[in-house]
Amino acid sequence: MTEASESLKTTPLHSLHLELKGKMVPFAGYDMPVQYPLGILKEHQHTRAKAGLFDVSHMGQVRLTGEDPAAALESLVPGDIKGLARGRMRYTLFLNEQGGILDDLMVTNAGDHLFLVVNAARKDHDVAHMRERLKGKAEVELLDDLALMAFQGPEAAAVLGRFIPEAATMKFMSYLPATFNGIPAIITRSGYTGEDGYEISCDKSDAETIARALLAEDEVEAIGLGARDSLRLEAGLCLYGHDIDETTTPVEAGLEWALSKRRREEGGFPGHAIIKDQLANGAPRRRVGLQPDGRQPAREHTDVCDADGHKIGEVTSGGFGPTASAPVAMGYVDRAHAAVGTPVQLMVRGKPLAAKVAAMPFVPQRYYRG
Amino acid sequence: MTIKYTKDHEWVRVEGDIGTVGVSDHAQHQLGDVVFVELPDVGRQLAQGKEAAVVESVKAASDVFAPVSGEVIEANADLENDPSLVNAGAETTGWFFKLRLSNPSELDGLMDEAAYKAFVEGQA
Q1: Can you state the subunit structure given in the record (chain B) (predicted)?
Q2: Tell me, what CATH number does A210's domain have?
Q3: How far does B39 lie from chain A, in Å, by closest CA?
């Protein structure tokens, strides 16, 4: 068993991961389970078939308060935050002045505050960024005393409903303060797998109790970060630092749906001029799905070439999709080659691998629509 | 018949001047579910310790090195259709390729089964 090295942080579920014989690896400064004895392939399939519990306590949970935190946050992101009804949530992006993506995040209108969930590797950056840019307009509190679990899969609603009946019928992308066997918890119907599911936020001292209660249900398995990655890749969802970063704009990344209509017109967020131009005239490159012919996966940083062998882009995430039962990848290509069906070559270990630009997601998303 | 192991967790089983090569059961456990194996072409000359094949799990690609030098005479076609054979039978049906040894004395530098077992336990 791997012991956490002194430089790595641990989550409130660390001892449970060790007890479950999780294979621990460093991730974003934390000692995290990449898989359990079930293995990535079966953990992935189990999540798509039943329900999987993921520890995502390494992610940053942030509370934004002030006179009008929604107006303040809108100065940093292109989403419609002011229009977010109480109890509803939205995916948005911190942008830089070039329209590059500093992080992607979830924002919930929790009534008297905004509740944000940001990436683990970016939470210190994001908190510093907000404190600097929102000074005098909003108070930024990193909620270090909270744990976060993702509970995903087609059986997740039925299982969570045994503990919190209202959870079974709550809307997709909504928020519910609840109690789980008497323990206070914040539930959102959201996730990162393409399946129906939830994220559960609670005090770190209560996390193991909730995790054990869910894992005791027949439908539920503990799922590691390896399957989290293959699930989100099949669902066509971006991983920050790989598929999106400071050099990619939301238009290049195909995230126009995160650019709210009012904000596109009004602006008032960093990089608006560049993004407005790209929305009107197209971006020089696009994030696309890539489907290799055959069984061989193409990994991150694989060059993408046109039929003549000229480099037109690069794979940013790639692997094997257990549900697609085929290799799947995404990456950026020049706009001229971005149409679905365009034949390309992926240069895997010096040899061209035939592939096509493919529509994403690779497996249908199955979010709860009520 | 001799079976020998490398520190990179390949095995080679030798009959006459023909060696059958694969990855150890310990290695397949570490790799996890194998989804693709890239095998060397028949006729390729492999040098000991150099890249010979690639094994891909859901998560990552890993190099497989030639435990001994020689010319590839057969690749395991069954792995193309069912790469999970590497998990099911790493040291039997999940073999990678066969080669004709060009320098059998290289075997002397490899570990026998007992030594490999001790090596793996020492790594844990």
Answers
A1: The glycine cleavage system is composed of four proteins: P, T, L and H.
A2: 3.30.1360.120
A3: 12
